[in-house]
Amino acid sequence: MTRDRPDLAGSHFTLLANTASGNKDTSQDIAMIRARIEPQVARFSLVEIHKGDPVQARARAAVETGADIIGVLGGDGTQTAAAGVLAGTEAAMAVLPGGTFNYFSRGLGGGETLEEALHRLEHGRIEARDLAEVNGHVFLNNASFGLYPAILERREKIYHRWGRSRLLAYWSVILSLAELRDPMRLSLSARGKKRDIVTPLIFAARSHYQLESFGLDGAEAIRNGQFVLLIARGQRRRELVVAALRLAFGQAARGRDFEVIIADDILIESRRNHRLVALDGEKQRIEGPWHLQIREDALKVIVPLAQAPDAAGGEDLLQGRG
Fold first, then answer.
1. How far apart are CA 3 and CA 127, in angstroms?
2. Pairing assessment for the beta strands 12-18 and 137-139 based on DSSP bridges
3. Are residues 160 and 288 in the same domain?
4. Which residues are in the DAGKc domain (predicted)?
5. Tens of pLDDT along 49-58?
């Protein structure tokens, strides 16, 4: 595991700034980062990412131009897209929160504001972290099947009309649950066992921060390089609405509201292989069967110097688009 201090003075620092993240003008954040970091590095490059621009392509270009440290300003979706490109390269990722929830940045430690993230960059260390993937698609915090992609579609419409807020994020969950139809019928293989399940929602967590913020068990398993798979027990609308409310208020109970499976390699199969999958709040159509696995020490990321080694940080179950 890498634990070197970043050499800012000798580095080529590239800032990837997603101007479409969150609900505020990012120009002040960009100016703040530039004023703070540019005098400390050998070379500073700025790449602004506008709505519709491919984050992956911009991150790949930064690697190809020789950037040693790539600062990513944006929300969790932006961080995930960049991490998928930076994984396996020599470039170190500096996470700079600029989205609505910023749970990945918060889970790294050292605070959740941009000021605190810059302090983490200036005084932290480079550490290799595990990444999760499903059929080769990287995610930092969670992957979900079933109801959650429908919630995201509903929330995007609400955000477009009313703007972003956590209250509206929770409201989109209630509306989506009210329109729930048939649950999924799947086969799940983990730890050498295969079983059939019927559920409206499967949530594969890779964020200790997320689980702890909801008062859920499993943080230690994630720190040990495993998935915590949450399988919703309820199938009727009323059951799911009540479970969602309990989860929102930190009162969800293992066994009552969901089943938990802990494993480092999971296969999900279905007769219907064309499904939307939500990866860190971004919808993708990934054809099944779906293989979830861990890539050990795949991503170099800057973490606080005094922070104990930990798993990749979290994202709210109701996170916004980054």
1. 5
2. unpaired
3. yes
4. 8-137
5. 998 899 999 9
Residue 118: other Cβ atoms inside 10 A: 18
Containing domain of residue 153, as a range? 138-296
243/259 same-domain check: yes
148: three-class secondary structure by DSSP: helix
Q: What are the CA-CA distances from residue 272 to residues 185, 230, 268, 269, 306 (Å)?
A: 9, 21, 11, 8, 47
The answer as to whether 25 is a domain residue is yes
Tens digit of pLDDT for each residue in 218-262?
999 999 999 999 998 866 666 666 665 565 545 555 567 788 999
Q: What is the pTM of this model?
A: 0.83
Q: Which residues contact 236 (CB under 8 A, 6 or more apart)?
A: none
Q: Which residues of the chain have pLDDT under 70?
A: 1-3, 22-23, 166, 170, 173-174, 176-181, 234-255, 307-322
Q: Within this chain, do residues 115 and 147 fall inside the same structural domain, yes or no?
A: no
* H helix runs in 228-284, sequence order: 237-248
Nearest by Cα to 14 from 35, 43, 39, 36: 43
d(CA 121, CA 38): 13
Pull the structure tokens for residue 255: 């066994």
DSSP H helices in the chain = 27-37, 55-64, 76-86, 103-108, 114-123, 147-162, 166-178, 208-213, 219-223, 237-248
On the CB side of 122, how many CA atoms lie within 13 Å of its CA?
12
Residues in contact with 20: Cβ distance below 8 Å, sequence separation at least 6, in sequence order: 49, 50, 51
| Rounded-to-10 torsion of CA 312, 316, 317, 318 | -150
Spatial CA neighbour of 269 closest among 184, 148, 142: 184
Q: Is residue 182 part of a domain?
A: yes
312 within a domain of the structure (yes/no): no
